[in-house]
Known about the structure:
Elements: E1 6-13, H1 16-35, E2 40-47, H2 50-53, H3 70-77, E3 83-87, E4 99-103, E5 112-115, E6 127-129, H4 133-142, E7 147-149, H5 155-159, E8 167-171, H6 172-177, E9 188-191, E10 205-210, H7 214-221, H8 226-242, E11 250-256, E12 273-280, E13 287-294, H9 297-311, H10 314-319
Parallel strand pairs: 1-2, 1-3, 6-7, 6-8
Antiparallel strand pairs: 3-10, 4-10, 5-8, 5-9, 11-12, 12-13
Helix pairs in contact: 8-9
Amino acid sequence: MAGVPVGLALATRGSALARWQADHVAALLVAAAAADGRDLVVDQVVIETTADQRLDIPIWEMGGKGVFVKQIQAAVLDGRARLAVHSGKDMPAVTHPDLVIGAVPLRADPRDVLVGSTLADLAPGAPVATGSVRRRSQLASLRPDLTFGDLRGNIATRLDRIPAGGAIVMARAALDRLQLTARPDRPHEVLEPAVMLPQVAQGALAIECRADDTEARALLARIEHEPSRATFDAERGFLAELGGDCDLPAAAFATRSGAAAGAPPDTAGAPVITIEALLASLDGHTVIRASRSGSDPEALGAAIARHLLDDCGGTDLLDR
Length: 320
């Protein structure tokens, strides 16, 4: 009821990007509650994760997906917060059984961006810094002459570590959200999915709550963007089918017909989802890629994973 503010605690990491994401989600929730005639106050519970503290260890050596997520989830599980905000690309394929992803708001630009140079302007042997095996393998496939180094830290720290004569690779959504994309003294190139297939759920936000928190789930449903959720679920279906033990470079990017500007679905009635997915060797010498369309997001993601594994030689990559 208006005039009686309802409090809601939201768990987040403490980086500038994480705080932006938490502020954005809080604003969406406050607006949704106001539209229902309710006042909502959103407090933030800031948590510094072990992965944020141990910048000396590459993410893939710390366990890859999930290293930024578990301690944020713990705050919801132990009652310090009702909600947790995550970057979709940080989410493991399977979440905690007592939690549910209650909302995926409108997705931002999922593409990667090369900062410091364009791909064509990198000289032979130029250094490229990235903490992602997915980015490294795809660039190595395109430009086997490049050399690679690790890259950790918050967005500002990474931008300060562009190697001389080289570049770093970042998520376009992160730079856009912090208004850091365009700077005349810093060349950059947005890498289209045909060049660099994005990370699963890159550009998307995922908001978790307890599975039994019906009030929070009802509020989160108000900020769900259904087309973004459909592509998010398709890409995560691909990741889930690969299995939690897959540490190979993997990527997937889904689109949905009728997702832009409220356009109608296809003439068959249900929106069509198209997903492109990739598996690669760590050195980039082998890259397998395929696309498939369908209407059931999770089934589609699982199907293209099985196609890459069973029909395209992906199982051989896993066995190496």
